[in-house]
Design a protein that fits this description.
The chain is an alpha/beta fold. It has 2 domains: 245 residues, Aminopeptidase, CATH 3.40.630; 75 residues, no CATH class. It is built from 12 helices and 8 strands. It has an 8-stranded mixed beta sheet with strand order 1-2-4-3-5-8-6-7, sandwiched between helices. α1 packs parallel to α2. The structure holds zinc ion (ZN). Zinc ion (ZN) binds next to β5. The site of zinc ion has 4 residues, from β5.
C-alpha cells in the first residue's frame, strides 16, 4: 500500500502550517491557544479544531505532542485524518488537539518549557507521589559530564540496578515520574503546567462529561516494537472505563496495571484527569508507536537533559538533540506508513464504536 507521506513535517512550524491548511478545507471551528514563554519570540501555539455538531452526543478526541518531540507522528496522523476525512456519524463530533506541548515540539524535547513531563503533571500538588527508587538512582541518572567514559559508567551502574530490581521496578523508578528534582528526568512539576491548564479548559468548553460516549486517543512514540502502534489503557482494570476501552479495542489493547503493556504504571498521567470527567462510556487510550530500545532512550534523555542544564558547546547540544529526535521520530518511509495505517485503523474503530451499539 502506498500512502502520501507529505503529512509528516520536518519541524513544529511546518507541522502547524500543514495542520492549519488541512483544517481550512474542512468544515469546522478552529481555535488557537498561544503559549507565551518569557524571552522567547518563537510563536508556540496549540491549535484545536472541532468538527461536527456542537451538541453531538458522542466525541472522538485526537491529541498530538503531549511529549513535544513525539508530535511528529501524531501531527501527521491528524493531518492525514483531515485529508482523508472519513464519513462521520451525524451524532458524533471530532476534537483535534494539535501540539499540546508546542515548546517541546518546537525544540525537539520530550518535556515542556519548565522541564516538566506533561504526562506526569496531573497529580495533586498538595500531596505529590513519592518515588524513593528514583532517589536511589539519581546519582547515576544525573551525569557529571558528557565524556563517553562517564556516560558508560553511569549506564553500567544503572544496568546493575535493572538486573537487581527487574525491568518493571527499574523502569518505574526512572520513568514513573518524580516530583523532587526539577532538573531531573521525568519530572512531574510542582504546579499545573500551561498545557495542563489548557486541557482543563478544553474539557469544560467541549462538555466532556455531558457526552454519551467519548474516546480519547493520545498519540505518542518511543516505546515498543519499531512501527507498531500499541493501544494502551491506564484505566484501573476493573473500572467502567477499562470495560468500555476493551469493548472498543478488544485484543488490541494492553494495560500497564495488568503487566501486559510495554509501558509501566506511572504517576500523573493526563489520562487520570479525563477519567474523572468521563461519562460511563468514556475511555482514554495512548496510541504508542514503537521506535528503538528503551535503554537507548534513557541514555539519550540523560545526555540531552544534561545539555539543557549545563554549559555545553552548540555542536554537542545539536548532536544530542538530533539523536533524541531520531529516537522518537524514525524518519523512514516504513515507519511513517505504519503510523498512518495504524492511526487510520484505530480512528475507524473508534468512529464505528461511537456511531453504533
Ligand atoms: Zn510519550
Amino acid at each position: 500500500m502506498h500512502r502520501p507521506l507529505d503529512c509528516f513535517s520536518k519541524e513544529y512550524s511546518e507541522a502547524r502550517d500543514k495542520f492549519l491548511t488541512a483544517s481550512q478545507s474542512v468544515e469546522g471551528t478552529l481555535t488557537s491557544y498561544k503559549n507565551t514563554v518569557p524571552d522567547l519570540e518563537l510563536e508556540l501555539v496549540t491549535d484545536v479544531f472541532y468538527l461536527g455538531a456542537k451538541q453531538a452526543s458522542n466525541l472522538l478526541v485526537l491529541i498530538s505532542a503531549t511529549h513535544g518531540v513525539e508530535g511528529y507522528c501524531g501531527s501527521a496522523a491528524q493531518i492525514d485524518f483531515l485529508h482523508l476525512l472519513p464519513e462521520i456519524d451525524t451524532d458524533t463530533a471530532v476534537l483535534i488537539i494539535h501540539a499540546l506541548n508546542p515548546y517541546g515540539f518546537a525544540f525537539d524535547r520530550r518535556v515542556n518549557e519548565d522541564n516538566i513531563d506533561l504526562n506526569r503533571n496531573f497529580v495533586d500538588f498538595t500531596a505529590p507521589p513519592s518515588n524513593n527508587d528514583y532517589q536511589e538512582l539519581k546519582p547515576f541518572l544525573a551525569l557529571t559530564d558528557l565524556a563517553e567514559k562517564s556516560v558508560l559508567a553511569t549506564q553500567h551502574s544503572l544496568e546493575q540496578y535493572r538486573l537487581d530490581w527487574g525491568d518493571m521496578r527499574f523502569e518505574q523508578a526512572v520513568s514513573g515520574g518524580q516530583y523532587s528534582d526539577a532538573h531531573g528526568l521525568f519530572y512531574g512539576g510542582n504546579k499545573a503546567s500551561w498545557s495542563h491548564q489548557l486541557i482543563q479548559q478544553l474539557m469544560n468548553e467541549f462538555h466532556i462529561s455531558e457526552r454519551q460516549k467519548v474516546i480519547v486517543v493520545d498519540i505518542h512514540s518511543g516505546l515498543g516494537p519499531y512501527g507498531y502502534g500499541e493501544v494502551i489503557s491506564d484505566h484501573p482494570p476493573d473500572s467502567s472505563g477499562a470495560k468500555w476501552a476493551r469493548e472498543c479495542f478488544g485484543y488490541n489493547m494492553t494495560e500497564p496495571a495488568a503487566g501486559t503493556s510495554s509501558s509501566v504504571p506511572k504517576h500523573g498521567l493526563m489520562d487520570y484527569l479525563w477519567h474523572q470527567n468521563f461519562p460511563a462510556q468514556g475511555c482514554y487510550v495512548t496510541l504508542e508507536f514503537g521506535t528503538f530500545a528503551v535503554d537507548k532512550m534513557f541514555a539519550i534523555l540523560q545526555q540531552e537533559n544534561y545539555c539543557w542544564h549545563h554549559p555545553v558547546s552548540t555542536e554537542q547540544k545539536q548532536s544530542i538533540q538530533k539523536q533524541l529526535r531520531e529516537y522518537f521520530y524514525p524518519e523512514y518511509q516504513d515507519w511513517q506508513e505504519m503510523v498512518l495505517f495504524r492511526c487510520q485503523q484505530i480512528i475507524t474503530m473508534s468512529l464505528k464504536k461511537l456511531a453504533h451499539e
